[in-house]
Amino acid sequence: MTDSNANTIVREFLIQNDIGIHSRPAAAFVRVSNKFKSDISVVYGDKWADGKSILGLLILEVLTGTSIVVKVAGEDAEEAADAIEELINDQEGMFNTPLKKG
User: For the chain, what percentages of helix, strand and coil (3-state, to nearest 5) are there?
Assistant: First the structure.
């Protein structure tokens, strides 16, 4: 995050699907993130990634049952953080529901 004077929002989220952040949830996260001007980063353990990069999110190897910290800084930080929270906490969404078998 480059603008230290910008509005900064930090939120923690528990990932509850069967296999953590794989390609579909990463793509959904990036789609939402790219709607906003703010810088968005994701911290997992001692690693971090640009929240607007699918590859960056996949490299984090976020496992199910673990938490990520999302940091958003910029003029639309509150709106971006709210949209990400809605995506991750959607009980019917890919961050919370098991993969369909078969």
Answer: 30, 25, 45
Instruction: Let me know: does 33 contact 80? Beta carbons within 8 Å.
Output: yes
> Active site residue: 22, 43, 66, 93, which one?
22
List the chain domain ranges: 8-89
Q: Identify whether 22 is a catalytic site residue.
A: yes
Domain 8-89 has CATH 3.90.180.10: no
Task: State pLDDT tens for residues 62-73.
Answer: 999 999 999 999
| pTM confidence score | 0.87
Backbone angles phi, psi at 73, to 5 degrees: -135, 130
Please provide the DSSP assignment of 16-55 as one string: -SSSSS-HHHHHHHHHHHTTSSSEEEEEETTEEEETT-HH
Mean pLDDT of the chain: 90
